[in-house]
């Protein structure tokens, strides 16, 4: 519960206490004014986004109860009746508001935790993690530091977006490629010949599209560092 929200509820409690006091003393005009003030303060408190759904659900019938009592008093004044109605319900509402202010289940705390931006070594490590150990790439160990230097003031989420874009580019290249060439599988445990997208003027280029090649025979284009940016070739 924020400070402003608590202030509004405290003001509503004070208005409700004064309203009940005036109501019992049959000072109906003053009582009606204080009931309506309590309603207004509670409506202001409900405008805060930090108020929990449970607390709003509890406050709504309180607003309705105070509003109904104010209308009853107005009718008493209008009809000239001096018959006083019991104010037990509004007293219960006032006690409920006091309980809400102190019971943590009715509100949630806003706690901000400052997380500093990653330093040079941390950014380099994040690039490695987000790119993945199974990704086919040609980035050398010293080039991770180059990437980290180029991404000063980047957060971990920013680096994740950069890596995600780099990982999507090989898929786009496979889909758009019109020529492929055969290369040895870059994985050391498998020495099969695979098809890799290439330029049409490559001396080993063969006119093909990826839908004509079995998925097991496709080699994804490697993620490569170009001008200190990670792309696929």
Automatic annotation (TrEMBL):
SMART domains in the cross-refs: MIT
GO molecular function, one term: ATP hydrolysis activity
Membrane-spanning segments: none
Keyword terms: ATP-binding, Nucleotide-binding
An individual GO BP term: endosomal transport
InterPro entries associated with the record: AAA_lid_3 (IPR041569), MIT_dom (IPR007330), MIT_dom_sf (IPR036181), MT-severing_AAA_ATPase (IPR050304), P-loop_NTPase (IPR027417)
Annotated ranges, domain MIT: 5-84
Protein name: MIT domain-containing protein
Organism per entry: Rotaria sordida
Lineage, top ranks: Eukaryota, Metazoa, Spiralia, Gnathifera, Rotifera
């Amino acid at each position: 519960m924020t400070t402003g929200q608590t202030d509004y509820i405290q003001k509503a409690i004070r208005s409700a206490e004064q309203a009940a006091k005036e109501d019992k003393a049959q000072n109906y005009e003053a009582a009606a004014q204080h009931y309506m003030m309590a309603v207004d303060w509670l409506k202001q408190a409900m405008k805060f986004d930090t108020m929990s759904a449970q607390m709003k659900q509890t406050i709504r019938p309180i607003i309705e109860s105070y509003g109904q009592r104010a209308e009853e008093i107005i009718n008493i004044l209008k009809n000239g009746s001096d018959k006083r109605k019991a104010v037990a319900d509004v007293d219960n509402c006032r006690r409920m508001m006091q309980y809400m202010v102190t019971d943590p289940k009715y509100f949630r705390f806003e706690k901000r935790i400052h997380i500093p931006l990653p330093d040079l070594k941390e950014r380099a490590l994040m690039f490695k993690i987000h790119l993945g150990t199974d990704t086919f790439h040609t980035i050398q160990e010293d080039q991770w530091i180059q990437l980290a230097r180029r991404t000063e003031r980047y957060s971990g989420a920013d680096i994740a977006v950069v890596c995600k874009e780099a990982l999507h580019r090989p898929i786009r290249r496979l889909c758009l490629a019109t020529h492929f060439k055969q290369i040895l599988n870059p994985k050391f445990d498998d020495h099969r010949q695979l098809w890799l997208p290439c330029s049409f003027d490559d001396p080993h280029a063969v006119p093909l599209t990826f839908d004509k090649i079995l998925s097991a025979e496709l080699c994804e284009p490697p993620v490569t560092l170009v001008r200190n940016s990670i792309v696929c070739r």
